[in-house]
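[Meeting: bench + compute handoff]

Bench side (C.D.) handed over the final construct sequence. Compute side (W.E.) agreed to return the predicted structure before the next meeting so the bench team could plan truncations. Sequence as handed over:
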Amino acid sequence: MYQLIRSIFFWFDAEKVHYFAMNALRFFCSIGFIKKILAANFQAKNKKLAFESWGLEFKNRVGLAAGFDKNAKYLRELEVLGFGFVEIGTVTPKPQDGNDQPRLFRLPKDKAIINRMGFNNDGVKVVAERLKKWKEKHEVQSTKYENSPLTTHHSRLIIGGNIGKNKVTPNEDAWKDYEICFNELFDYVDYFVVNVSSPNTPGLRELQEKDSLRKILSHLQTLRTERLKLKIDSVVEKPILLKIAPDLTQSQLDDVIDLAKEIQLDGLVASNTTISREGLITDAAIVTAIGAGGLSGLPVKQRSTEIVQYITQKTNGEIPVIASGGIFSAADANEKLQAGAVLVQVWTGFIYEGPAIAKKICNGIAVQ
Protein backbone atom coordinates (compact mmCIF):
# COMPACT_ATOMS: atom_id res chain seq x y z
CA MET A 1 0.00 0.00 0.00
CA TYR A 2 2.73 2.46 0.92
CA GLN A 3 4.46 1.94 -2.43
CA LEU A 4 1.30 3.20 -4.15
CA ILE A 5 0.97 6.15 -1.79
CA ARG A 6 4.64 6.98 -2.24
CA SER A 7 4.35 6.95 -6.02
CA ILE A 8 1.58 9.54 -5.73
CA PHE A 9 3.43 11.65 -3.19
CA PHE A 10 6.54 11.69 -5.39
CA TRP A 11 4.64 13.66 -8.01
CA PHE A 12 4.54 16.65 -5.66
CA ASP A 13 7.03 18.94 -3.94
CA ALA A 14 8.92 16.95 -1.31
CA GLU A 15 8.76 19.52 1.49
CA LYS A 16 5.04 20.19 1.04
CA VAL A 17 4.29 16.47 0.99
CA HIS A 18 6.28 16.02 4.19
CA TYR A 19 4.12 18.46 6.12
CA PHE A 20 0.91 17.22 4.50
CA ALA A 21 1.67 13.63 5.51
CA MET A 22 2.71 14.48 9.06
CA ASN A 23 -0.27 16.77 9.63
CA ALA A 24 -2.58 14.04 8.34
CA LEU A 25 -0.96 11.60 10.76
CA ARG A 26 -1.38 14.13 13.57
CA PHE A 27 -5.11 14.35 12.78
CA PHE A 28 -5.54 10.57 12.90
CA CYS A 29 -3.54 10.30 16.12
CA SER A 30 -5.85 12.85 17.73
CA ILE A 31 -8.67 10.31 17.50
CA GLY A 32 -8.25 7.87 20.38
CA PHE A 33 -9.28 4.58 18.83
CA ILE A 34 -7.44 5.30 15.56
CA LYS A 35 -4.30 6.12 17.50
CA LYS A 36 -4.55 2.75 19.29
CA ILE A 37 -5.00 0.94 15.98
CA LEU A 38 -1.97 2.69 14.50
CA ALA A 39 0.13 1.92 17.57
CA ALA A 40 -0.89 -1.74 17.47
CA ASN A 41 0.18 -1.96 13.84
CA PHE A 42 3.39 0.05 13.90
CA GLN A 43 5.01 -0.64 17.28
CA ALA A 44 7.26 -3.63 17.88
CA LYS A 45 6.25 -5.59 20.99
CA ASN A 46 9.45 -7.45 21.83
CA LYS A 47 10.65 -6.24 25.26
CA LYS A 48 14.08 -7.68 24.54
CA LEU A 49 14.60 -4.75 22.18
CA ALA A 50 15.05 -2.42 25.16
CA PHE A 51 18.54 -0.98 25.41
CA GLU A 52 20.38 1.19 27.91
CA SER A 53 23.15 3.64 27.15
CA TRP A 54 24.35 6.80 28.89
CA GLY A 55 21.95 5.93 31.72
CA LEU A 56 19.02 6.31 29.33
CA GLU A 57 16.51 3.52 28.80
CA PHE A 58 15.60 3.19 25.13
CA LYS A 59 12.52 1.16 24.28
CA ASN A 60 14.38 0.05 21.17
CA ARG A 61 17.51 1.00 19.22
CA VAL A 62 15.77 2.58 16.23
CA GLY A 63 15.55 6.34 16.22
CA LEU A 64 14.63 9.15 13.87
CA ALA A 65 17.48 11.45 12.92
CA ALA A 66 17.42 15.22 13.25
CA GLY A 67 15.86 17.21 10.44
CA PHE A 68 12.60 15.29 10.23
CA ASP A 69 10.84 16.87 13.21
CA LYS A 70 12.80 20.09 13.45
CA ASN A 71 10.38 21.85 15.77
CA ALA A 72 9.18 19.00 18.03
CA LYS A 73 5.69 19.14 16.55
CA TYR A 74 5.18 15.43 15.88
CA LEU A 75 6.51 13.59 18.94
CA ARG A 76 3.22 11.84 19.66
CA GLU A 77 2.93 10.67 16.08
CA LEU A 78 6.51 9.41 15.90
CA GLU A 79 6.07 7.57 19.18
CA VAL A 80 2.96 5.90 17.74
CA LEU A 81 5.07 4.79 14.76
CA GLY A 82 7.35 2.87 17.11
CA PHE A 83 10.55 4.87 17.24
CA GLY A 84 12.63 4.37 20.36
CA PHE A 85 14.01 7.88 20.22
CA VAL A 86 13.60 11.05 18.20
CA GLU A 87 16.20 13.74 17.65
CA ILE A 88 14.54 17.13 17.22
CA GLY A 89 16.18 20.08 15.47
CA THR A 90 18.53 21.33 14.35
CA VAL A 91 17.45 24.14 16.68
CA THR A 92 19.07 27.58 16.67
CA PRO A 93 18.79 30.45 19.19
CA LYS A 94 16.74 32.66 16.90
CA PRO A 95 14.06 31.43 14.51
CA GLN A 96 15.13 31.37 10.89
CA ASP A 97 13.45 30.58 7.59
CA GLY A 98 16.32 28.59 6.14
CA ASN A 99 17.29 28.63 2.48
CA ASP A 100 15.04 29.48 -0.43
CA GLN A 101 12.59 26.86 -1.70
CA PRO A 102 12.64 24.41 -3.34
CA ARG A 103 15.29 22.91 -1.06
CA LEU A 104 14.37 19.24 -0.73
CA PHE A 105 14.81 16.88 -3.67
CA ARG A 106 14.31 13.15 -4.20
CA LEU A 107 16.60 10.90 -6.25
CA PRO A 108 14.45 7.74 -6.51
CA LYS A 109 16.92 5.83 -8.69
CA ASP A 110 19.52 6.21 -5.95
CA LYS A 111 17.12 5.91 -2.99
CA ALA A 112 18.52 9.25 -1.90
CA ILE A 113 17.56 12.79 -1.00
CA ILE A 114 19.36 16.09 -1.44
CA ASN A 115 18.46 18.86 0.97
CA ARG A 116 19.67 22.38 1.59
CA MET A 117 17.15 23.31 4.25
CA GLY A 118 19.50 25.64 6.13
CA PHE A 119 18.45 25.05 9.75
CA ASN A 120 14.89 26.34 9.25
CA ASN A 121 13.24 26.23 12.68
CA ASP A 122 11.01 28.13 15.10
CA GLY A 123 13.85 29.13 17.41
CA VAL A 124 14.90 27.54 20.67
CA LYS A 125 12.42 29.31 22.97
CA VAL A 126 9.40 28.12 20.99
CA VAL A 127 10.77 24.59 20.71
CA ALA A 128 11.62 24.50 24.42
CA GLU A 129 8.09 25.54 25.34
CA ARG A 130 6.71 22.79 23.11
CA LEU A 131 8.98 20.23 24.78
CA LYS A 132 8.02 21.50 28.22
CA LYS A 133 4.35 20.85 27.49
CA TRP A 134 5.19 17.40 26.13
CA LYS A 135 7.15 16.56 29.26
CA GLU A 136 4.45 17.80 31.63
CA LYS A 137 1.77 15.87 29.77
CA HIS A 138 3.70 12.61 29.82
CA GLU A 139 5.31 12.60 33.24
CA VAL A 140 2.41 10.73 34.83
CA GLN A 141 2.45 8.13 32.08
CA SER A 142 6.23 7.85 32.47
CA THR A 143 5.74 7.05 36.13
CA LYS A 144 3.42 4.20 35.25
CA TYR A 145 5.69 2.94 32.48
CA GLU A 146 7.82 0.17 33.96
CA ASN A 147 7.08 1.60 37.43
CA SER A 148 9.83 4.15 36.86
CA PRO A 149 10.64 7.18 39.01
CA LEU A 150 9.33 10.52 37.81
CA THR A 151 12.29 11.44 35.63
CA THR A 152 12.68 12.35 31.98
CA HIS A 153 15.08 9.50 31.25
CA HIS A 154 12.36 6.92 31.81
CA SER A 155 10.09 8.44 29.19
CA ARG A 156 8.72 5.99 26.65
CA LEU A 157 10.23 8.18 23.95
CA ILE A 158 13.79 9.39 24.39
CA ILE A 159 14.26 12.88 22.94
CA GLY A 160 17.54 14.24 21.67
CA GLY A 161 18.20 17.91 21.09
CA ASN A 162 20.23 18.68 17.98
CA ILE A 163 21.63 22.20 18.32
CA GLY A 164 23.32 24.59 15.90
CA LYS A 165 24.16 28.20 15.25
CA ASN A 166 22.22 30.86 13.38
CA LYS A 167 23.38 31.64 9.87
CA VAL A 168 24.19 35.26 10.78
CA THR A 169 26.35 34.31 13.77
CA PRO A 170 30.06 34.50 12.92
CA ASN A 171 32.04 31.36 13.66
CA GLU A 172 34.08 33.04 16.38
CA ASP A 173 30.84 33.57 18.30
CA ALA A 174 29.31 30.18 17.48
CA TRP A 175 29.95 28.87 21.00
CA LYS A 176 27.47 31.44 22.32
CA ASP A 177 24.68 30.06 20.11
CA TYR A 178 25.36 26.52 21.29
CA GLU A 179 25.32 27.75 24.90
CA ILE A 180 21.93 29.43 24.44
CA CYS A 181 20.38 26.32 22.92
CA PHE A 182 21.95 24.07 25.54
CA ASN A 183 20.61 26.12 28.45
CA GLU A 184 17.12 26.52 26.98
CA LEU A 185 16.69 22.81 26.19
CA PHE A 186 18.54 21.32 29.14
CA ASP A 187 15.48 20.45 31.22
CA TYR A 188 13.49 19.05 28.31
CA VAL A 189 15.72 16.76 26.27
CA ASP A 190 17.49 13.54 27.24
CA TYR A 191 20.70 14.11 25.30
CA PHE A 192 22.35 16.73 23.09
CA VAL A 193 23.91 16.53 19.66
CA VAL A 194 26.19 19.36 18.56
CA ASN A 195 25.75 19.88 14.83
CA VAL A 196 28.75 21.44 13.13
CA SER A 197 28.60 19.17 10.09
CA SER A 198 25.64 20.37 8.02
CA PRO A 199 26.77 21.55 4.57
CA ASN A 200 23.85 23.97 4.30
CA THR A 201 24.99 26.75 6.62
CA PRO A 202 27.94 28.68 5.13
CA GLY A 203 31.16 28.10 7.04
CA LEU A 204 29.60 25.74 9.59
CA ARG A 205 31.83 22.79 8.74
CA GLU A 206 34.89 24.88 9.57
CA LEU A 207 33.86 24.37 13.20
CA GLN A 208 34.81 20.69 12.84
CA GLU A 209 38.46 21.71 13.21
CA LYS A 210 39.93 20.48 16.48
CA ASP A 211 40.43 23.81 18.24
CA SER A 212 36.95 25.09 17.36
CA LEU A 213 35.38 21.84 18.51
CA ARG A 214 37.29 21.86 21.78
CA LYS A 215 36.03 25.35 22.59
CA ILE A 216 32.38 24.50 21.93
CA LEU A 217 32.27 21.04 23.47
CA SER A 218 34.36 21.81 26.55
CA HIS A 219 32.22 24.86 27.24
CA LEU A 220 29.03 22.79 27.08
CA GLN A 221 30.55 20.21 29.41
CA THR A 222 31.38 22.98 31.89
CA LEU A 223 27.84 24.32 31.67
CA ARG A 224 26.47 20.84 32.30
CA THR A 225 28.67 20.37 35.37
CA GLU A 226 27.55 23.70 36.79
CA ARG A 227 23.87 22.94 36.20
CA LEU A 228 24.06 19.49 37.73
CA LYS A 229 25.64 20.87 40.88
CA LEU A 230 22.42 22.81 41.41
CA LYS A 231 20.30 19.65 41.03
CA ILE A 232 21.45 16.99 43.42
CA ASP A 233 18.48 14.82 42.46
CA SER A 234 19.50 14.61 38.81
CA VAL A 235 19.95 11.04 37.66
CA VAL A 236 21.24 11.59 34.14
CA GLU A 237 23.99 13.97 33.10
CA LYS A 238 22.44 14.79 29.72
CA PRO A 239 25.05 13.23 27.44
CA ILE A 240 26.66 15.49 24.84
CA LEU A 241 27.40 13.99 21.42
CA LEU A 242 28.96 15.39 18.27
CA LYS A 243 27.56 14.79 14.79
CA ILE A 244 30.26 14.48 12.15
CA ALA A 245 30.31 14.67 8.37
CA PRO A 246 31.11 11.69 6.15
CA ASP A 247 33.41 13.98 4.16
CA LEU A 248 36.06 14.32 6.87
CA THR A 249 39.57 13.46 5.76
CA GLN A 250 41.45 10.75 7.61
CA SER A 251 43.44 13.33 9.60
CA GLN A 252 40.28 15.29 10.47
CA LEU A 253 38.55 12.13 11.66
CA ASP A 254 41.58 11.25 13.76
CA ASP A 255 41.50 14.75 15.26
CA VAL A 256 37.84 14.31 16.19
CA ILE A 257 38.54 10.95 17.81
CA ASP A 258 41.57 12.28 19.69
CA LEU A 259 39.57 15.24 20.97
CA ALA A 260 36.64 13.03 21.96
CA LYS A 261 39.00 10.88 24.02
CA GLU A 262 40.81 13.89 25.47
CA ILE A 263 37.69 15.64 26.78
CA GLN A 264 35.81 12.38 27.45
CA LEU A 265 32.99 13.21 25.06
CA ASP A 266 29.90 11.07 25.60
CA GLY A 267 29.54 9.93 22.02
CA LEU A 268 29.47 10.61 18.29
CA VAL A 269 26.79 10.52 15.59
CA ALA A 270 28.08 9.19 12.27
CA SER A 271 27.20 10.59 9.98
CA ASN A 272 25.57 13.70 8.52
CA THR A 273 24.85 14.23 4.82
CA THR A 274 27.60 14.33 2.20
CA ILE A 275 28.49 16.96 -0.37
CA SER A 276 29.82 14.21 -2.66
CA ARG A 277 27.87 13.18 -5.75
CA GLU A 278 30.11 10.25 -6.60
CA GLY A 279 28.52 7.07 -7.94
CA LEU A 280 24.98 8.38 -8.42
CA ILE A 281 22.75 6.64 -10.95
CA THR A 282 20.50 9.67 -11.44
CA ASP A 283 21.24 11.58 -14.64
CA ALA A 284 24.08 14.02 -14.06
CA ALA A 285 22.10 16.87 -15.64
CA ILE A 286 19.33 16.42 -13.08
CA VAL A 287 21.80 16.37 -10.19
CA THR A 288 23.53 19.47 -11.54
CA ALA A 289 20.20 21.27 -11.90
CA ILE A 290 19.35 20.51 -8.27
CA GLY A 291 22.56 22.18 -7.16
CA ALA A 292 24.07 22.39 -3.71
CA GLY A 293 22.92 20.45 -0.67
CA GLY A 294 23.61 17.46 1.51
CA LEU A 295 23.05 14.02 0.02
CA SER A 296 21.54 11.32 2.23
CA GLY A 297 20.29 7.79 1.80
CA LEU A 298 21.78 4.75 0.13
CA PRO A 299 24.81 6.55 -1.39
CA VAL A 300 26.20 7.34 2.10
CA LYS A 301 25.56 3.89 3.55
CA GLN A 302 29.05 2.45 2.98
CA ARG A 303 30.96 5.54 4.10
CA SER A 304 28.84 5.85 7.24
CA THR A 305 29.51 2.22 8.16
CA GLU A 306 33.23 2.65 7.51
CA ILE A 307 33.36 5.64 9.86
CA VAL A 308 31.43 3.81 12.59
CA GLN A 309 33.78 0.84 12.32
CA TYR A 310 36.89 3.03 12.31
CA ILE A 311 35.81 4.97 15.40
CA THR A 312 34.94 1.76 17.24
CA GLN A 313 38.24 0.08 16.41
CA LYS A 314 40.40 3.11 17.16
CA THR A 315 38.71 3.73 20.54
CA ASN A 316 38.20 0.07 21.46
CA GLY A 317 34.50 0.83 21.67
CA GLU A 318 35.00 3.36 24.46
CA ILE A 319 33.14 6.12 22.59
CA PRO A 320 29.53 5.12 21.84
CA VAL A 321 28.40 5.85 18.28
CA ILE A 322 24.91 6.43 16.92
CA ALA A 323 24.90 5.33 13.28
CA SER A 324 23.01 7.29 10.67
CA GLY A 325 23.24 6.94 6.92
CA GLY A 326 21.66 4.59 4.41
CA ILE A 327 19.55 2.53 6.80
CA PHE A 328 16.50 1.12 5.03
CA SER A 329 16.15 -2.36 6.52
CA ALA A 330 17.00 -4.60 9.47
CA ALA A 331 20.00 -5.86 7.49
CA ASP A 332 21.28 -2.31 7.15
CA ALA A 333 20.77 -1.69 10.87
CA ASN A 334 22.52 -4.93 11.81
CA GLU A 335 25.45 -3.94 9.60
CA LYS A 336 25.81 -0.71 11.58
CA LEU A 337 25.49 -2.52 14.91
CA GLN A 338 28.08 -5.09 13.88
CA ALA A 339 30.38 -2.22 12.94
CA GLY A 340 30.11 -1.04 16.54
CA ALA A 341 27.14 1.32 16.71
CA VAL A 342 25.01 1.28 19.86
CA LEU A 343 21.94 2.83 18.22
CA VAL A 344 20.75 3.56 14.69
CA GLN A 345 18.82 6.43 13.14
CA VAL A 346 16.76 6.58 9.98
CA TRP A 347 15.67 9.55 7.90
CA THR A 348 15.78 8.99 4.16
CA GLY A 349 14.81 5.37 4.76
CA PHE A 350 11.59 6.59 6.38
CA ILE A 351 10.69 8.44 3.17
CA TYR A 352 11.33 5.46 0.92
CA GLU A 353 10.18 2.58 3.14
CA GLY A 354 7.24 4.22 4.89
CA PRO A 355 5.79 4.43 8.41
CA ALA A 356 6.41 0.77 9.22
CA ILE A 357 10.19 1.12 8.97
CA ALA A 358 10.84 1.22 12.72
CA LYS A 359 8.81 -1.94 13.35
CA LYS A 360 10.38 -3.78 10.41
CA ILE A 361 13.88 -2.97 11.61
CA CYS A 362 13.04 -3.85 15.20
CA ASN A 363 11.60 -7.21 14.19
CA GLY A 364 14.76 -8.12 12.32
CA ILE A 365 17.37 -6.46 14.45
CA ALA A 366 19.98 -8.48 16.29
CA VAL A 367 19.04 -8.49 19.97
CA GLN A 368 22.27 -8.29 21.93
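W.E. noted at the follow-up: Confidence is low (pLDDT under 50) at residues 147-155. C.D. will use this when planning the next construct.
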